[in-house]
Amino acid sequence: MERNNYDTVPLICDIIVPVLDELCVLGDPVAISGIFNNMYLLLHDQESESYEDDRGFKILIHDPRDDPVIDLRTHGTTLMEGWVKDVRVAVREFKTIPTNRRPCIATPAYSSSQCISTCFLRTLYNETRCLMPYMSPPVAPRGEPCRTPEQYRLALAREQDLLFYGGWSHVRCSCLKQCNEDIYSTFTEAAKTSGKSAKLRVFFQDLTYDEVSEDIAYGAIALLCDIGGTLGLLLGASVLTFIEFVEVLGMKFLPRAPRL
Fold this sequence. Notes:
GO terms for molecular function: ligand-gated sodium channel activity. The protein folds into two domains: 2-213, no CATH class; 220-253, no CATH class. Helix content is 29%, strand content 22%. It is built from six helices and ten strands. α2 (68-74) packs across α3. Residues 1-26 have low confidence and may be disordered.
């Protein structure tokens, strides 16, 4: 495990609310860490109507390659209006080697999260026959969106059954893990405020990250060297001895040319 400097990794913001476009500049490096050097958001829900499970804001810190559709619901943190929340972020980078027992995909653009999310959304669409607002067209190119409140409620209830009550499992999807993965660990603290808006502060714990990588400790070259060394130690064999052995076999079994 290595601990590396994190000053060249950009702070990426998902487009969840329009104000994020003004607060986050994609590609700019994070130069300062700590609670007093943060991304600050003031959130206010202006929708006059909401469903029972649609109140508040869902927050998820994730790799830019990942699709947050499932992880937001299963691992996201909720921020309600009238509360302030601090989110401290620590980063770990994993680099694994594909093996027969643990295969993975090393393509940089591949994300197992996207593969699993696409699998789930297709399953949900096949059971509800309508597209939720967060579903992209590739899930069902000819599908129709959920247009009525009743369709939306039924699709939302089925989504809860699939995710939280055993109706669906990602093991049914043929999605391999990605070999290189960044894990964002979050630590949250929340407090009640007197206002009606929600306040969010996101900051890095420090400017370093943990790198965990796999490497082949005993390869084919090392195996051949050990075999050769063992033979040389036990038998006194060498390359010259091997050539002499082949010469003796050739003289014994190969026909000899007649002498004049």
